[in-house]
Amino acid sequence: MMETKKSKPYILNKNAIFHFNKYNLRRKKFYEWATETTKNIENLRNHKLKDKHAPKFVDISDVWHIDGWNNSNERNDKNFIDLFSGAGGLSCGLVMAGFNPIANVEIMPQALETYKFNFVEKKGFYKNCETRDIRTEKVKLDLYNSVKGKKVNLIVGGFPCQGFSIAGKRLVFDSRNGLYLEMLEIVKRLLPDFVVMENVEGLRTMLKGQVEKKILEDYEAIGYKINVATLNSADYYVPQIRKRVIFIANRIGVDNLFPKPLIEKENYVSIGTAIRKYIDLDEDPTINHIFTKHKQETIRKIEKVEEGESLYNNFKHSWYRSPWNKPSCTIKENHGGVNIHPILNRVLTPRELAALQSFPDDFIFKGSKKWQLVQIGNAVPPLLAKAIGLSIRKSYENKNQETTISKHWL
After folding, report:
1. Is residue 161 annotated as part of the catalytic site, yes or no?
2. Active-site residue (options: 92, 129, 161, 329)
3. Residue 401: in which H helix or E strand, if any?
4. What does pTM read for this prediction?
5. For 48-78, how does the pLDDT look when each residue is reduced to its tens digit (9 = 90+)?
6. Does CATH number 3.40.50.150 belong to domain 56-266+381-409?
C-alpha cells in the first residue's frame, strides 16, 4: 500500500488575504470589523431593552395633599400585601396614599411588633399579623387563605439581593436571596394588578446588569409589563438623600407611572427643619426619643467633628455630622445610631432618625433601642412610598378613563 504523505497543519496568518463577499480582506482587519459589529449589535439590543423598560413619569403634585394615614375618608378601595414589611415604611406610605393593607409577612419579631402596634392596634387594619417566614409552605398557604375573597390590587416588597451570582452564563440564587423567588411565586399565585419592588441602587449594576435583566424577564414571562427607575427620596420631601431602585409592574394594560420629583434640589427639606422640635426635648422613651450614653472621651471627640465631616476618616458616613441646613446622608441599619446631631454633641435618637426617614410623629417603634435603630435604618421612607402609591393611583385613573371612553363608543 502506498504510504500517504502527512500534510502539515495550515495556520492562517493574521495578514493572510482571503475572499469575503467579493472583497479581498486581511484576516486581522476582518476580525476587527466582525468584533466591532458584534459589539454594536449587542449595544443596540441593550439600548432597545433599556428603552423598553425606561420609566414614564407623572405629576403627582395635584394629589399630594391626600393623607390616608390621618384621614380614613381619603382611603380608596385598593388593597395591598406587604412582603418583607419590616416595621412598615412602605405600608405607612401606601396608607398615606389611600391604600389598605390586608396582609404582611415579616420574620423579625421586633419589627412585627412595631407593625402590629401601628397598623392593627392604632389604625384598626386587618388582624392577621404575626411573625412568619415566607420561605415555608405553611406561611404561604396561610397568606393565601387570609386574603381569600378579597381583591389584591398590589403586592409590594423589598427583597435582599446580595446572594445573586453567575455560574457559567446562568444567573443563580443562594439562600440569601431565595426570597426574591418566594415573592415571584406569591405574585404568580395571587396575580395582583400591580407589583412594586424596592431595592438598593447598586442592584442595577450588579453582575453587569444581569440581575436587573433577570427581574425584568421573570415578570414579563408571567404577563406583567414592567419598568424600573432610580428614585431619590429627597425629591419627595424626605429630609434625607436616599436613592432606591424601584420596579413597578402591572397586568391591567396601563403604563407604569413613576412620580415626578416634587421639589428642586435647592429646596430639599433640611435636617434642621425635620428635627428642630426635638432639640430641647427631654428624653422620652414613649416616643423613641432615647439618648445614647456617651463616654466623656467620646463626647470630646464628637465636639471636634465639623458639619460635613466624620469622626473617622476611613468611614465616610459613620459617625457623620450632616449639615443643619441640608438633607441628611443616608440613614443605615446600625446598632449604634451613629449619625451625629448637627448641633448637639451626641448621636441622633431613634425618634430623630425616624423623622429623617419621614415617619409620622405618631408612628412608634417597639423593642429595645438597638432594634428600633435597625428597623428605622432598614425602612423605606414613607413619603417615598406615598409618592409611588399616588403614581399608581394615577395609573388606575388612566385605566378608568380608557374604560369610560371605550364604553362611550360601543
Report:
1. yes
2. 161
3. helix 382-409
4. 0.85
5. 556 788 999 999 999 999 999 999 999 999 9
6. yes
